[in-house]
Amino acid sequence: MYLRKPWDWPKLWGMNLQQIRNPHWIFPGQVLFLDISNGRARLTMGSDSQGIPTVKLNPQVESSPLPPEGIPTISPELIAPFLTQPLIVEPDTLEASPRIVALPKGHTMASPGTQVYVRGDVSKATRYQIYRPAKPLVDPATKKIIAYQAEYLGTTNLVEPPSGPDAVSVFRVDGIEREVGVGDRLVIAPPREFLNYTPHAPAKPISGDIVSIYGDLSMAAKNSVVALNRGADDGLERGDVLALWHNSRMVKDSTAPGKPEIELPDRRVGVMMVFRTFKHVAYALILSADEPVEVADRFTQP
Predict the structure, then answer these.
(1) Which of 19, 36, 226, 242 has the smallest number of Cβ neighbours within 10 A?
(2) 293 Cβ partners below 8 Å, 6+ apart?
(3) Can you spell out the DSSP letters for 214-239?
(4) 146's torsion region: left (phi>0), alpha (psi -120 to 50) or beta?
(5) Half-sphere exposure (CA, 13 Å, Cβ side) for 1?
């Protein structure tokens, strides 16, 4: 029998001299086994040769892709036509706005490239939008006209400024959506805005009425656009979420003797969100409605 040298003996047991001197130390790479037998638990040292694989764990980052786009609060195609045109003309603006007074000889309507003659103050800008007052908006409470819902016609540019305070100026029609004629009005083209719709409750308590349903409809439902008799001067701003209510009404109780009149309570029927504001008017998109919404239905903070 061949006997190894004494300093080789620890290698037979899978140990090194440092472990002989410090048997209580544990070193990287060692394999430890937990032995539970005879009511006791013991740790023993083994090796990879015993058939137990070594698993190395390394820190890593788990990730998941974000959605390609955020979830929009309002579908853009529903309100796009209302964002690029004036839509509302205040009564004082209507009275002061320049007006088309004549067309070239032989013309009854203007088309792109046509020069038109305008009277009024055009000193504040050279580019204007053309509109036609189409519908007065009447406040149900005061019975007064609070604004005019304008019909957008096109754009025009100043060619020849007036020579005097009351002289005629010449404009060239650039682009139109409908034919332009005598009596149509000019309003300064507003600058482009960065539009951000973050739904939130109004900053203060507010209430009012629906004055118009866009499209001359008698009733509105989800995704309809309605005009309100409150605007920026009343504290409304883009993103305000409002509750829709049917007003209380009187009905006859046909189940009781004499059929007396009784009052039905107010009923909340939906929610809408403001997406554009003017001085005394705002436009909102109906987000949900349990029942058809009508002109003179009221709104409050949610």
Answers:
(1) 36
(2) 210, 213, 219, 220, 221, 224, 226, 244, 269, 270, 286
(3) TTT-S-B-TT-EEEES--GGGT--TT
(4) alpha
(5) 1
Q: What is d(CA 184, CA 180) in angstroms, rounded to the nearest whole number?
A: 7
Q: How confident is the model at residue 138 (pLDDT cuts 50, 70, 90)?
A: confident
- Cite the DSSP H helix spans in the chain: 9-12, 17-21, 76-79, 91-96
Q: pLDDT tens across 15-44, in order?
A: 555 555 555 677 777 777 777 778 787 777
Phi, psi of 206 (to 5 degrees): -150, 150
Domain 207-300 has CATH 2.40.10.410: yes
| Gap between the Cα atoms of 285 and 298, Å rounded | 14
Q: Please, is 297 exposed, middle or buried when counting C-beta atoms within 10 Å of its C-beta (0-12, 13-18, 19+)?
A: buried
CA–CA gap between residue 17 and residue 25 (Å, rounded) = 12
pLDDT score at 283:
92
What share of residues in the chain are helix, strand, coil (percent, to 5)? 10, 40, 50
58, amino acid identity: N
Pairing relationship of beta strands 88-89 and 99-102 according to DSSP bridges? unpaired
- Write phi, then psi, for 48 (nearest 5 degrees): -65, -20
Q: What is the pLDDT of residues 45-60, one digit of tens each?
A: 765 555 556 667 788 8
Residue 133 contacts residue 145 (beta carbons within 8 Å): no
